From TrEMBL:
Region of interest (Disordered), ranges: 173-192
Biased composition (Pro residues): 176-186
Swiss-Prot/TrEMBL keywords: Signal
PROSITE patterns: PROKAR_LIPOPROTEIN (PS51257)
Signal sequence residues: 1-20
Name used for this protein in its record: Opaque-phase-specific protein OP4
Native organism: Suhomyces tanzawaensis NRRL Y-17324
Amino acid sequence: MKFAQATLVAILASCAVVGAAPVAPIASSETTMVKRVDLNEVLDLLSELKSFNTKRGELSPEEELQFISKRDGVISNLISALANSGIIGDVFNTLTSDPQISASIGAIIKATLQTAIVQAPQLLTAIWNSGLLQKLFNTLLNDTDLRNALLAAGESLISSVIGLLTGSLGGSSTPAPAPSPAPAPAPAKRELTDEEYVSKRDLASIIGTIVSEIKDSGYVQNIVQNALANPEQSIGFLTSAFKNGVVIFEDVYDWAKQSGLLNSLISSLASSNSGILSELASFVGGQLDNSSSSASAASAASPASGASINASGAAAVPVATAPASTGASSAAPANNNDNDVYAQLAAQYGGSSSSKKRRNY
């Protein structure tokens, strides 16, 4: 069963509202208590990094390679130390909002996107976290080069969503999970001392110092490149860059298109690992539930008639279920449930839910 193009466009445009909520919060001092020892490690690494400027001098080719390897190792350790300390989000935000280096950072982001150093799932998540998912869908739908690829991915994505919904509608029973073993008693907590943690007042000053040290190190470009090449940290850095206006969406779209990164991004849309699948299932399930008052009433009358969706950690969402029947018809075939969901979506968004397998794009 296929959706007509108009139906797919309507569903994709409507479902893009899930992009309003970030899916991967960036660690920051707002949510993390910061230890002094962790900040000292960051400052020690910055001091070590700055020392490379005085050590370079006249080096042979072999010594130069060893120098670069050591320097890059320190930069990688610095990124890890920032992440472990819990202030990496603050540092990224401060760096990308600094007008003195924002243009340089924008040029680095451009280069990494044009050479596809940043991976498609990370770029997709950063766009999502920045609230730009709907803008991405709209731009792709108006791009004659990529429109059909988006619609094909959208059809696959929505079919996967319907598979989640109809799996619940089918009433298939799964064995109850084995009871979890009793948790081990938590170790006794020792009292925390004020000396171990940095106060909010001091932390802001220390973060400013760290950012200044990064700028003065002479290795801003290397640090940014390392962050963008890191699958975990590239999301946070790109999100900060989007939100602080270091790069604008239209430019990022063009750079990613030139490198072929957009094609990979479109393919990753339908991946169950993208995080969008579970959010989209929640959204569509809620839409179907709201559009079927009779099913909602039946669900309220019989608590057992509702089903929940829980994919990739998504919150459970109630979905409409068919009224129970007696005899052999009590276990409805999955394809009938599939037809019901397609029919409800077609009624909700327009278009045909004909079972004839054809593509209209």
